[in-house]
Amino acid sequence: LLTVVNFLKRRLPIVVWLPAYSTSLLQADIAAGLVVGIVLVPQAVAYSLLAELPPLYGLYASLAPLPMYALFAPSRHVTVGPFALVAILIADSLSTVVPVSHREEYIAAALSLSLLVGAFHLLMALFRFDVLIALLSNSVLSGFTTASGLVIAASQLKHLLGMHIPRGSFPQTLGYALAHAAEVKPHALALGALGVLTLVAISTLNKKFCAKVKLPEQLFLIVIATTLSALTDNFNVAGLGPLPVIGEIPAGVPSFALPDAS
Predict the structure, then answer these.
(1) Of 88, 158, 240, 258, whose Cβ has the fewest other Cβ atoms within 10 Å?
(2) pLDDT at res. 2
């Protein structure tokens, strides 16, 4: 019996912390959950667009892991779900096999890839491959982090400049943007600059005046951008034409089925 209890504590950390869960922790978790939930929706949509998938799949991928993580994860300080670099890797990997224009085949390939990655993760956890992380030097991690930031920034240039940029490497993306600078939409660039300035300004306010309770800068940016879009007919100003927006996202939950791996 003691062996079973120890096994459950190792594999289901919730049996350890749940008995000690207090009302004060619940109140703090509710407040944090509301803020994270509000920010998570547009963030998940953005990640799905990075992966060249419909917005709905970003929501599925962001919401489904959270209850599972509460059951099985040993740490309270690790974020779960999709993030920008993984979304870009999915698009880069799949676009060489299935054209993005073939939507049904591309979505099926993305689901199959996710299933394979999950299976490999389970095998790595079973055989305790996490010890390999200790072998990575700080220089490797620093290089990975820096390169990730550059790749993510380059992938967003087409949205910041309001122009079509073919998928390519970091130098290819910059070269194409510079060679086609005449195609830049000024109101798209102005909107992007406004977003960056808003994030920087609120972050500075948080550091100087909101040390204990910080303002959610992403939430403020979402409200500002949504309001401007509604007031200007999708940012259609000075006769420059509207900018593309997400549009309506279907409601409901998907039907569960195994992806076609053929």
Answers:
(1) 258
(2) 63
Position 6 pLDDT exceeds 80: no
Amino acid at 130: D
DSSP letter for 46, please.
Answer: H
* Residues 141, 2: Cα–Cα separation, whole Å: 40
How many CB atoms lie under 10 A from the CB of residue 151?
17
Q: How far apart are CA 107 and CA 98, in angstroms?
A: 9
Most confident listed range (134-138, 177-181, 246-250, 253-257): 177-181
- Range 106-115, long-range pairs (CB < 8 A, 24+ positions): 106/52, 106/53, 107/53, 107/54, 107/57, 108/259, 108/260, 110/51, 110/53, 110/57, 111/259, 112/259, 112/260, 112/261, 114/61, 115/258, 115/259, 115/261
CB count in 10 Å sphere of residue 181 = 9
Res 176: pLDDT: 93
Q: How far is CA 138 from the centre of its chain?
A: 24
Whole-structure pTM value: 0.78
| Other beta carbons less than 10 A from residue 91's beta carbon | 20
- Residue 1 pLDDT grade (very low, low, confident, very high; cuts 50, 70, 90): low
Rounded Cα distance between 14 and 10, Å, is 10
Which contacts (CB < 8 Å, 24+ apart) does range 31-39 have? Answer: 35/216, 35/219, 38/216, 38/219, 38/222, 39/216, 39/218, 39/219, 39/222
Portion of the chain with pLDDT greater than 70, in percent: 98
CA distances from 203 to 16, 47, 180, 189 (A): 36, 22, 33, 21
